[in-house]
Amino acid sequence: MKIMLVILLSLRILNPSSILIFANENQKENLMKIVKEFKPSNSLLVSPENPFSTKTIQLYDFNQDGQKEIIATFQIKAKEQSSPSQFGVMVLKKENNNWQKIWETKTQGVGLEFSGLADITGDGIKEYLFGVTIGAAAGNKLEVFQWNDNSFKKIADVPYHKMNILDENQKIGLAVWQWYIADSYLVDVLKWDGKKLAFDEELYSRYYPTIEKFYNDKISEMDAWFYWYCLADAQIKANLLEEAPKSIQKGRSLAKQLSMPDVVQSFNELTSRLEEKKKHFSN
Fold this sequence. Notes:
This protein is of the alpha+beta class. It has helices spanning 2-38, 201-221, 225-237, 244-257, 261-282; strands at 44-45, 57-60, 69-76, 85-95, 98-109, 111-118, 127-135, 139-148, 151-160, 162-168, 171-179, 185-192, 197-199. Strands 1, 2, 3, 4 and 5 form a five-stranded antiparallel β-sheet that branches. Strands 6-7-8-9 form a four-stranded antiparallel β-sheet, with no helix packed on it.
């Protein structure tokens, strides 16, 4: 009797989670069946590299009617092995118990770098962000799409090599890292200004410690002029006008030792930018 009671109790404990797993698997299968009806016949469903662990299918209620739309990403491989593929996304909407494809876009590239949602415009409804890798040197191209009258309108194009989405005090921004030289990057932080994505000083200053740590770590491994250049650029953008001259001096000194007059001139131009900013603050 005791054994039977233990078995019954364990079944009662395990059963709810078993049902949940079964329901989740069923939902995945159903979603996959729906998506396969609408995806291009010569395509494969693919997951993006970022955000990490994002699936091929995402769900979001764009028009806030209680019924989530389906977002699915796919790849159409090029016939020629060396040619770039096409990476695409489609959005399916349920109307009168029937699913319909309401939007699709495709971009040529070598990889799907990003597929995600963020409220870029701050209107309470998330935008869809779609990033495709163009090439190692060219980096990635991010397209930002806003829900607009049962479809999507592209509101921004952003080139980048690395990107972080910042969410601080309900202010959404994009930290965009553009490749400079070797493994160094020039960084901008962009925020929606009502019409477009534009440089935002406040968010940049908050993000600056991340940039500073990146370059301090790099400099501790190799004291290279290009790290000092990118750090000085970041310090000017973050209004650290007492720190920037030190970085410029260190980088320019290294460039002089290597007899690189063009690089020395680049540091001189940084100094001019710094002086202009100092004048702006003194007025």
